[in-house]
C-alpha cells in the first residue's frame, strides 16, 4: 500500500469510529436516523432529492398525499405490495420504523409537485375525457371523483398530476391483471374494462395535466 493510500485508510478508520453523526448517517437500519436524512441519502438515489424522479421506473413522490405514502411504505414493509418492481426495489426497507415512515411521508408530501410535458395532444384530450367523465359504456368510473379536480388526490387517494405516464400505465396494468396491490380492489374495478390505448391516454393526460385551453384543438377564431 503506498503512503497516501495508507494515510487515507487510517483517516477513514478514524472517521468511521468517530461517526456518531446521525444527520449524515447512511445506516438506514438505525431506528434513530431521521426520516429526512434517509430521504436525502437513500431514497433520493431513485426518487430524487425532492421526490421528482427522472426515470419513469421510479414514481415521483413530490406532493404525493401523506396518508397514501404511509400506506404504501407500510405495504412494502410487510411485503403485501408485491408487483415485481415493488419486490425488486422496495422490499428491502423492512427496518423502517413507524416514526421514520411518518417522517418520510411528511418530507415527500411537502415537496412541490412538478408536472410533465404536454406531448401528444390527441392522446391527452382523449385522456382528459376519461379522467373527467369516465367511460360510461364500459363501466369505467370518472377518475376525478376520487383523484380530484386537479389530480391532486386526497388522503388515501393518491395524487396523479405530474406522475410519469409510463409508471401510471404500468400500475393500471398491475391493478387490472393482478392482486399484488393490497388496497387495489377499487382500482381493479375501475380499470377492468379499459383498453391499453385508454390507459395510455389517461396516463398521458395526468402526467401533463394541462388546462383545457392549452390543448384545445380549435381555438376560438376571435382570439
Ligand atoms: C433502488 C431504487 C429505489 C430506492 C432506493 C427507493 N425506491 Fe421507492 N420505489 C422504487 C420503485 C422502482 C418503485 C415502484 C414500484 C412499483 O412499480 O410498484 C418505488 C415505489 C415507491 C413508492 C410508491 C409510490 C406510488 O406512487 O405508489 C413509495 C412511497 C416509495 N417508493 C418510497 C420510497 C422511500 C421513502 C424510499 C427510501 C426509504 C425509497 N422509496 C427508496 C425504487 C426505489
Ligand atoms: C372510487 C375511487 C377511485 C376512482 C374512481 C379511481 N381511483 Fe385510482 N385509486 C384509488 C385508490 C383508493 C387508489 C390507491 C390504491 C392503493 O393504495 O393501492 C388509487 C390508485 C391509483 C393509481 C396508482 C397511483 C400510484 O402512484 O401508484 C393510479 C395510476 C390510479 N389510481 C389511476 C386512476 C385512473 C386513471 C382512474 C380513472 C380511470 C382512477 N384511478 C379512478 C381510487 C380511485
- Count of discrete structural domains: 2
Question: In the CATH classification, which architecture of the largest domain applies?
Answer: Orthogonal Bundle
Which molecules other than protein and nucleic acid are bound? heme C
Can you write the helix and strand succession as a string? HHHHHHHHHHH
**Structural class computed from helices and strand pairing:** mainly alpha
How large, in whole angstroms, is the Cα Rg? 21 Å
**Strand portion, in percent?**
under 5%
The CATH class of the largest domain, by name, is: Mainly Alpha
Topology, number of strands: 0
CATH superfamily of the largest domain: Cytochrome c-like domain
The tally of helices reads 11
Characterize the largest beta sheet: strand count, sense, and whether it forms a barrel: none
Report the average pLDDT across residues: 89
Helicity, as a percent range: 40-55%
Shape: globular
Jot down its keywords.
2 domains, binds heme C, mainly alpha, disordered N terminus, Cytochrome Bc1 Complex, Chain D, domain 2, 223 residues, iron ion binding, transport
Q: Summed up, what is this model?
A:
Heme c 1 binds at residues 43, 46-47. With 223 residues, the chain is an all-alpha fold.
